[in-house]
Amino acid sequence: MTATTLPPGPARTTVHKVTGRRVLRSEWAKFWSLRSSWITLAVALLLLIALGSIASATYSPDAVANQGPPGPGSGDSDAVSLALLGVTFASLAVGVLGVLISAGEYSTGMIRSTLAAVPRRLLVLWSKSAVFGVVAFVLATIGALAAFQLGTLGLHGQKIALTMGDDGVLRSLVGAGLYLGLVGVFGVALGVVLRSSAGAIAVLVGVLLILPGLATLLPDSWEDSVTPYLPSNAGSAIYALHEASNSLSPWAGLAVFAGWVALTLAGAAGRLARTDA
Amino acid sequence: MIEARELTKRYGDKTVVDHLSFTVKPGEVTGFLGPNGAGKSTTMRMIIGLDFPTGGSVTVNGRAYGKHAAPLHEIGSLLEAKSVHPGRTAFNHLMALAYTHGIARSRVDEVIELAGLTSVAGKRVGAFSLGMGQRLGIAAALLGDPAIVMLDEPVNGLDPEGVLWVRNLLRQLADEGRAVMLSSHLMSETALIADHLVIIGRGRLLADTTVDDFTQAAGGGGVKVASIEARKLRSLLAGPDVTISSSSAEELVVSGRDAHEIGAIAAQHGVALYELTPQSVSLETAFMELTSDAVEYHSAPVDASRKAA
Prior knowledge:
The structure holds 2 protein chains of 2 kinds.
Chain A: H1 20-32, H2 35-57, H3 79-83, H4 87-108, H5 110-117, H6 121-154, H7 169-194, H8 197-215, H9 220-226, H10 231-236, H11 250-274
Helix pairs in contact in A: 1-6, 2-4, 2-6, 4-5, 4-6, 4-7, 4-8, 6-7, 7-8, 7-11
Chain B: E1 2-11, E2 14-24, E3 29-33, H1 40-47, E4 55-60, E5 75-78, H2 90-100, H3 105-114, H4 130-142, E6 148-152, H5 160-175, E7 179-184, H6 187-193, E8 196-201, E9 204-210, H7 211-219, E10 223-227, H8 230-237, E11 243-248, E12 251-255, H9 259-268, E13 273-278, H10 283-291, H11 302-308
Helix pairs in contact in B: 2-3, 3-4
């Protein structure tokens, strides 16, 4: 390394203001310049596509006759639920990546550089959420469509086979993308609220996976009125082909899940704007 | 220009920065000195809006940091702790910062070259040594060609060549008319670079002075004279502005007369001297004396710690 003398800086006339568009550009560059982003996105896509196509390929209408526990591949499945079997697993990968994007800045100290460059802190939160929400939505939608298309190969000739043009299919597949996009934003917001990757990932897993299970311990009368509104239950309505008996309608479910995400984002905004970095 | 007025930061009942007022002027290197835990880093974090003051205020070029539309052009900073994601390359880190201000890629290349990082710009920062990390931090501070440069312990982890580079760079930045502020807990190092000194301890201002004045004050340690006729000498040297103390029968410590005068007077009266030594106090000693009450963590005397072990 050699020391050189200071070259003249850019002329002072080229000073540009920090704007939302520039912060978005910066967050976009930050996202794609980390290896963990590529790896985790690849894992999420792989889970989404591989699990969906495998479940479709191994589907057997006779399985229900074996009196086995109902599950993937059993008789009461539809082509969409088989293709989207990987959503729960992909949601973990996407949520964790969301946490890493935001909480990772705190654990590494990068947040100091970020906030020194952008003192209007909320711009950073909105930009991070927008960049990752859109990336996760687009990729997850592509993944869901791919899983369904690959699945139709496996279901060829089966009674439950569907095509993209059938009622509710496209809505469910794009819905899976919307759900995963929102899960990504949820992860980003949790990371800003808790500022710790481990803590935020624990809460993410707890809320999305464990909470619905815990809710079954509630008395029946409560369970029926609480369960559909839990974040992951509400969110799953948008990517289910048929509305389950104890579930919200697709768009109401998505709205409720979006509400949870908005609430978390509000908490993140409060913490970010008011406390020392 | 940085202006802190009655700046105060409390965490619970612990006051880390206590009604601190100082000014960092353009065209000067201001050394910000204090022992560990004196509140230097907290003050610097408040200057760039990372921490919110409990009381008082600090402005950068006349405005609170957060009110600037393009802050990286006002003040560039290097904070003590690493503020970089280790998974990103040096170039991508700087580019991400540059995007927020629409700074051209060519300027990123320029500061990389200036910091001597050209050969490692494509390497991930996690693999950097402490010194390379410091160089990257300095490159980031200069990215916006700012009017003020603020560096927290910039020579930490640098090799001698790097230290010299920082010294020359800061001098040059100040000569270009920029305000330069650097923090350190080493007086001797800072005295080589700085023009002005702001010394704090326990969050309070202890001294706001120039390096020359501080050095001069530190040098005023009197003159030690030893003679068999110390008593006679004492009365000969006495005068209105002269104070004389003695630690033993044959030794005097004289302040108010320099060694020159004392020697002349002694010779004139035929008093034989066997020692005549100006008592220069080192800058480091003077600094430690100034801050001794304000040191957060006192180490035990060597023999005491040996006993304990």
